[in-house]
């Protein structure tokens, strides 16, 4: 393929935005949200994956920039597909990584480190839903459930779980206080 044909082919490929966020929580399963200076709704710590950057590296970078926290090798909780938004935001793949539990010192010192962060706080999942866009609220609910259940790699479509599929109530067997999926 010559350079011109290659350029033409590359021009036909779809473009999707990619963003990476981090779910951080305390021992009571309150989650960290940040209040950005540049918009009305709150966000999970994170941001856009830059060109040439992996989602993992972006999540680590954004967490350090926004909250001054360092986490490495965070497992993927959720990858969510979102279509073009009504405000024109392009479709994308949005990742949520498990930043784990905050220790007492991190909870006490929780604050924004970046000029784009007005404030940061711990909220219950229901309180968080009141401050975020509906699609993020759904994504965070799935991510928190995955973290609580020690699941990884949950795939969503607009914040709605696609895989792994949650078992129906009649497919769950309770043993010694724990729910176990029955094939």
Automatic annotation (TrEMBL):
By what name is this protein known?
NUDIX domain-containing protein
> Which InterPro entries does this UniProt record tie to the protein?
Nudix_hydrolase, NUDIX_hydrolase-like_dom_sf, NUDIX_hydrolase_CS, NUDIX_hydrolase_dom, Nudix_hydrolase_domain
- Pfam families per record: NUDIX
Q: Which PANTHER family match?
A: BIS(5'-NUCLEOSYL)-TETRAPHOSPHATASE [ASYMMETRICAL], DIADENOSINE 5,5-P1,P4-TETRAPHOSPHATE PYROPHOSPHOHYDROLASE MUTT
Residue ranges of the Nudix hydrolase domain? Answer: 14-148
The family classification in the record reads: Belongs to the Nudix hydrolase family.
Q: What is the organism of origin for this protein?
A: Promicromonospora alba
Q: Which Gene3D superfamilies match?
A: Nucleoside Triphosphate Pyrophosphohydrolase
Q: Does the keyword Hydrolase apply?
A: yes
Query: Which terms are listed as keywords in the entry?
Result: Hydrolase
């Amino acid at each position: 393929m010559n350079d011109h044909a290659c350029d033409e082919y590359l021009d036909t490929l779809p473009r999707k935005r990619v963003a990476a966020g981090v779910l951080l929580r305390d021992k009571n399963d309150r989650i960290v949200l940040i209040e950005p200076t540049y918009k009305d709704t709150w966000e999970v710590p994170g941001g856009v994956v830059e060109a040439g950057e992996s989602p993992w590296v972006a999540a680590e970078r954004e967490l350090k920039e926004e909250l001054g926290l360092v986490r490495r090798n965070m497992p993927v909780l959720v990858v969510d597909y979102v279509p073009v938004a009504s405000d024109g935001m392009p479709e994308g793949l949005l990742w949520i990584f498990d930043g784990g539990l905050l220790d007492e010192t991190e909870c006490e010192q929780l604050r924004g480190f970046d000029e784009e962060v007005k404030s940061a706080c711990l909220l219950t999942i229901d309180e968080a839903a009141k401050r975020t866009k509906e699609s993020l609220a759904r994504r965070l609910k799935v991510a928190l459930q995955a973290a609580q259940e020690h699941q990884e790699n949950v795939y969503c479509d607009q914040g709605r779980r696609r895989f792994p599929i949650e078992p129906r109530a009649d497919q769950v067997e309770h043993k010694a206080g724990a729910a176990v999926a029955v094939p």
